[in-house]
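[recover] target loaded
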């Protein structure tokens, strides 16, 4: 009997199917819908700013009023005091938040103790409280307990710190949890103290979280008026003044110019942050 050839026992293999290259109709349609959605959302966000710019470039509120840049010329003269209060409150809030959140984020991400998650939930509770309720609670607390903070710049700064503390804390915790402890352990093995390791190793690696927290805090405090309405007293910020002027006098060219200035400042801060991050990490990826 003749031997069976093993090659004859194998199943015939079909030739590989080559897929045609090109754009699928579904994918092209989905991309078009995505672009249309982004365009509609961009128009939704940009349209109010465009309307404010047009309103600020008139000499008066009349429809036939000629175009003028006078509302921008005396912007600092009209609202210099309120803008100064906004700058002081924003800078102080950012600095205090940094001093409080950096050690707190380090402890919550590196130390393991009972009740850590509960403590984190308590520290971030301000994110889940509506601004009206939050402002009313601060007003009652100042009036009943912390009476020395009523109608003071320190009371306003404290309100902003409490409200924006989670916005600075959570990015730092997220960044720290992504940093392997082996870097710090290597520094300790080489003889550096814990403080030196933190300052020379951990803190520079926390830079993305610090920058993100500073940006979020700046945008919220710089444009906040609802909580400020409850606790500001005579310390009027630029957004609160803008709200009062529009509520009692309607949209005037000067108030429209102030709104454009506040919003443009926020846009510039976001643009600078985005460009800096893209340049830094695009450079790393290219290496």
């Amino acid at each position: 009997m003749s031997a069976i050839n093993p090659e004859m026992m194998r199943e015939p293999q079909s030739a590989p199917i080559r897929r045609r290259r090109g754009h699928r109709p579904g994918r092209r349609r989905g991309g078009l819908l995505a672009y249309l959605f982004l365009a509609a959302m961009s128009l939704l966000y940009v349209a109010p700013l465009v309307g404010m710019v047009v309103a600020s470039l008139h000499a008066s509120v009349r429809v036939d009023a000629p175009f003028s840049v006078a509302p921008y010329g005396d912007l600092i003269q009209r609202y210099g005091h309120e803008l100064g209060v906004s700058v002081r409150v924003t800078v102080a809030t950012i600095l205090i938040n940094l001093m409080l959140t950096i050690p707190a984020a380090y402890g919550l991400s590196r130390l393991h103790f009972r009740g850590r998650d509960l403590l984190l939930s308590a520290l971030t509770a301000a994110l889940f409280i509506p601004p009206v309720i939050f402002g009313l609670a601060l007003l009652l607390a100042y009036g009943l307990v912390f009476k020395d903070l009523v109608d003071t710049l320190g009371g306003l700064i404290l309100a902003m710190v409490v409200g924006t503390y989670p916005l600075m804390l959570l990015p730092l915790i997220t960044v720290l949890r992504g940093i392997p402890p082996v870097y710090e352990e290597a520094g300790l093995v080489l003889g550096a103290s814990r403080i030196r390791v933190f300052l020379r190793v951990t803190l520079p690696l926390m830079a993305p979280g610090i920058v993100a927290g500073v940006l979020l805090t700046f945008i919220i405090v710089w444009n906040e008026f609802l909580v400020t309405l409850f606790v500001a007293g005579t310390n009027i910020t630029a957004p609160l003044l803008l709200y009062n002027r529009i509520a009692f006098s309607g949209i005037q060219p000067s108030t429209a110019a102030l709104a454009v200035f506040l919003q443009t400042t926020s846009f510039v801060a976001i643009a600078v942050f985005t460009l800096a991050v893209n340049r830094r990490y695009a450079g790393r990826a290219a290496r």
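[recover] notes: The chain has a mean pLDDT of 82.
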